[in-house]
Structure prediction request, 257 residues.
Amino acid sequence: MMNVLVCIKRVPATGAKIVLTTDEQAIETRRLGFTISPHEECGVEEAVRLIEKHGGTSTVLTLGPEAATEQLRYAMAQGIDRAVLLETDDGDWGPIATAKAIVKAIQAQQDEVGAFDVLLFGNESADNGGYQVGIRVAHGLDLPCVSGIKALDINNGTAIARREADGGWEIFEVSLPAVFTVKEGINLPRYPSLPGRLKAKKKEIPHLGPERTEDGLRKIRLKVPKEQAAGAEILGEGPQAAPKIVEILKKVGGLEL
Prediction:
């Protein structure tokens, strides 16, 4: 039996051009939907698979606005047992403040439901891409941490975590409890079933009010990078273009004569 925690983040579903607010402090989200950060969606799936294999209980936790209950319920519809919201109302928190709040919440949850054996985070969030929160939480809890993993096996209180490296894999063996930050590709997340969605709607989600601490970092403004220009070259028309095509293929190594 295992006790697994997975932490997620509510992020804009950015399939379109990014537009900033007039003060350049946030992404304009009035016309955007929200979703679970993709690496963390894989973390949810991994937590569900661990419980399916070993038995036990799973918890999903997020720090964010009340609207983030939508993402928590989505995770529960995928198979997570319970959820906790660290409710905030004053914008995005930095990695230091976020990690400190999560550490306190985990310690409180462990007093309530028992110690967590496996703590899963996304390798980085889809919006800020800071790569920090999972590692900072591990440090705050004095637990081992393996980041950027693409495979995880648990056996008799020991975890084997695999991370891609040039030409092969880096393999880590750690004793539980431990923290792991996962990357897309570790699994293929399932779609919630209709019974799962209905069941998730009925579950209560505790709302906790975390205390915001000094983050140590100060955001000046956001800046959208310039889009890379794309162009096209007309090589010719009909058979007259063939010699030019052959010449280009030779340059890129796509043709041998």
Remarks:
- The helical segments are 38-54, 69-78, 95-113, 133-141, 194-202, 242-252.
- The chain is about 30% helix and 25% strand.
- The chain has a mean pLDDT of 88.
- Residues 95-113 form the longest helix (19 residues).
